[in-house]
Amino acid sequence: MNALTPHLPALQVIVPMLMAPFVVLLRARSLPWAAATATSLLAFAIAIQLTMIVIGGTPMTYQMGSWAAPYGIELHVDALTALLLLLVTGASSVALIGGRESLAAIISEDREPLFFAAWLLALAGMAGIVVSGDAFNIFVFMEISSLASYVLVAGGPDRRALPATFKYLIMGTIGATFYLIGVGLIYMMTGTLNLADMELRVHEVADQKPILAAAGFITVGLALKAAIFPLHVWLPNAYTYAPHIVTAFLAACATKVSLYVLLRFDFFVFQQNLIGHEFQFAAYLMPLAILGILVGSAVAMFERNIKRMLAFSSVAQIGYMMLGASLVTATGLTAATLHMFNHALAKGGLFLAIAAVAMVVAGSRLSDIAGQARRMPWTFAALVVAGLSLIGIPGTAGFISKWYLINAALELETGGVALVALILVSSLMAVVYIWRIVEAAYFGEPTSDEPARVPMALVVILWAVAIANIGFGIAPELPLALSATAADILLGHVQ
Amino acid sequence: MTAQNAILIALALPLVGALGIALAGRISANLRETVTLVTAGGLAYTVWQVVPYVMDGGRPGVTLAEVLPGISIAFTVEPLGMLFAALASGLWIINSIYSIGYMRGNNEKNQTRFYVMFAVSLAATMGIAFAGNLFTLFLCYEILTLATYPLVSHKGDAATVRSARVYLGILLATSIGLFLPAIIWTYSVAGTGDFVLGGILAGKLEGPAVGLLLALFVFGIGKAAVMPVHRWLPAAMVAPTPVSALLHAVAVVKAGVFTVTKVIVYIFGVDNLFGAVGSGWLLYAAAFTIIAASVVALRQQNLKRLLAYSTVAQLSYVVMAAAILKPLAEIGAAIHIVAHAFGKITLFFAAGAIYVAAKKTELWQLKGIGYRMPITMTAFTIGAISMIGVPPTAGFVSKWYILAGAFQADNYVAIMTIILSTALNAAYFLPIIYMAWFMRETEPPAKPHGEAPWPAVLALALTALLTLAFFFFNGPVLELERQVVAGMS
């Protein structure tokens, strides 16, 4: 414990946020990248520190400017928060370390300071959403991170990045607006914006109808931002046309942050206060989760563009997280939060591998990577490892969360077997689409045989992620402890 | 070395060897093959170090990691696994000698990848043999599937990749779709997946659920090739012959029937299953596979495909023997794993040698080939006789025990199946032997040829001798496997 320790929750947001304008001023080549990477690593270090503090189960709160809640702004860090912070800062750091050449090839030198400033703002925004204990603050950070990520996505080399960004912007704004309407309604009825305070005051409200409407607005708005089927339409194009490194960053954490807010709201504020909300939550979200899993996997099976294939796979994977959460049991919530972590590892690894491949070949279609495994053996070997984790082969991280999800389904009294069948069928669908990449890369006819040069830093960081996929599949204690505690915290509010 | 260390070394050595092969492959082919042979020899030596412990009734084990509470990566050596590991590691040496002759004789591409993946496959095989619980077994089972995929698709052309896709698709789909749920079910009912003599499901699972779980296991373990999940095995024949010989006659397919036997003996428990309702179907499924696969084999014109269907039938011998649920039959199941391995690897070696020397793959091309390749065809004849089950070959010993077990249980379905399939085996193997030895070549070959390269001939002569030797010297194996059925009614 040193003097800074109590301020860590605030520093988690403030450090990247203050560094962003500073990065804009850096004009020398590579300097903005170096500053952004250093900041991101510092944020990662703070996240690790926070994790070590809260892993025991005692949450940490911080009063901004020492103004006491519920009037002041409160920051709140618990095991679930720590898990998300690790994801956000870890994904950002990994993507930045490996991504220097890949980004330099796409972003022109004069725009680099602005681009990396936007990156840091996105990072600060997402960290802010996660640590904030105040509903309106969450909205502010949501806007910061969204506006910054529109800039990041629009940086893509393809002109189609612009319409993709526009769609992302429109949908994202609708989502944020819905969220704000919901928060406004609750504020109108309770007079508070602090989540912990809201939890106590909502049931004092005599007329529950506005609260019910607020729950609807907030759930739909956040579902839009989390790309829950059928509100996922912005996601495939945004992921496909964004710069590859940006895709790796956003795919690992962006939707999960919104999902996190959704879980927070539903479990902290609504479930114990609204009559029958537990049932409504499960009954409305479970069918969407199931459809998302099936439709996302099915579309991915027939998609020829690898980035878009993986984006649709993300829609399915978000379905797994929703499915676990919609069971409203300890095992189910553990599976959901654990899968956030494990999916970030697998999908982040896959998109990093695609970024490495894109340094050598022109496009990201299956036909573009034909036979390229011979030229880039290390890159594709790591891609296969991450792919196996996405499928959920034992010995990889993906297996652990599937195991928990299947166990959670088996605990159900009715319909459990059907859910198990669904999970297994969609795993087989994942085998199909991952194997299409493998077959193209290993057995296609290459257009050229000369050895390809992939930046060393990217290959090293890619393998670090691949090894993490195996490591957390054999020794999953850390994410498991965090997600089990997170599940207890979420359920602790549902009494 | 202690038994624990020997287990760990046996698991790690092939992986270290794979790395060594990859590095040596950049320097010279001779060095690479030396590394392969040294690794294979070292592995066999290490595995044999464990034998005395198991013979004395010990069950040495190590736990590597506890992945989730109650679910660990652990290895325990028991008689069945001991036999399987000793068999696979011993035959790897001979197979490596054969591979050198075959791969060089055929000028195959990507030979380094071939030897590397072969070593990885052997590591996975050791893992399956020594697995101490269902989770560890499943882990190694999936690694074996994935590691053999590059070997099956070795040639890399469109038709090969299509066949390899069937191979991978069926094995992964059955394992994830059926085997994994069976394992999860077992863990959730019994609270454990450890292999315990007498079973862990006694009193925990009743009625038709037993039959259903058994079905999930048997069809989920696609490597056992019980119909209708046998299609991957003929598809795997596109692989180079050494792969067909060691992996698709010994390591992979035996991993399948070994797992089925292990599940019956250590998860269900033989005596429990004997009394259970709804477990009888397994015998009929295996009997059907034996007859149907033999009939299909009868109609094959391609030698390797014929051998593949013969393997499907022979694998179900093991499953059927295990399903008779009597002590002598369980011993017969274990011995048949060995007996069939010796015979079938000889047959595949011979088929590969014919391909290398004469580029012949179809049955009708084999007329009079015995005069050009006498050693190869002698070995082929010994292997074929063992498949039929005629003394003095290994196949006779295992059939004897399976039949004895069937009589113990008064199981006339099993007895009739064995008699009928013996006739069918004779019907498809004898014509080949007749053609090879007693018919004249219809036209002289474009290029006169003799035997295949000497390493290939040496290897197939060795396995043919093993097939004969097992008839006379099978005592230690019997003694080892009697431990499995100790205390059984």
Helical fraction of chain B equals over 70%
Runs of chain B in which pLDDT lies below 50 for 5 or more consecutive residues are: none
Distance between the termini of chain B: 37 Å
Secondary structural class of chain B:
mainly alpha
Query: Strand portion of chain A, in percent?
Result: under 5%
User: Overall pLDDT of chain A, averaged?
Assistant: 88
The low-confidence parts of chain A are none
Condensed summary:
The complex is a heterodimer of chains A (495) and B (489). With 495 residues, chain A is mostly helical.
Defining traits:
heterodimer, A: 495 residues, mainly alpha, two-stranded antiparallel ribbon, B: 489 residues, two-stranded antiparallel sheet, 19 helices, 73% helix, globular
Give your account of this protein's structure:
The complex is a heterodimer of chains A (495) and B (489). With 495 residues, chain A is an all-alpha fold. Chain A has helices at 8-25, 31-54, 79-98, 100-104, 112-131, 135-154, 161-190, 195-201, 209-225, 234-241, 244-270, 277-302, 306-326, 330-358, 377-391, 397-410, 416-443, 456-474, 477-492, and strands spanning 60-63, 74-77. Chain A has a two-stranded antiparallel ribbon. In chain A, α3 packs parallel to α14. The mean pLDDT of chain A is 88. Chain B has a domain at 280-489. In chain B, strands 1-2 form a two-stranded antiparallel sheet. In chain B, a hairpin with a 2-residue loop joins β1 (61-68) and β2 (71-76). Chain B is globular and about 70 Å long. Classes of the chains: A mainly alpha (495), B mainly alpha (489). The A-B interface holds A 388, 393-395, 400, 403, 406-407, 410, 420, 424-425, 427-428, 431, 435, 439, 442-443, 473-476, 480 and B 65, 67-68, 73, 135, 138-139, 142-143, 146, 150, 153, 156, 161, 165, 168-169, 172-173, 176-177, 180-181, 184, 188.
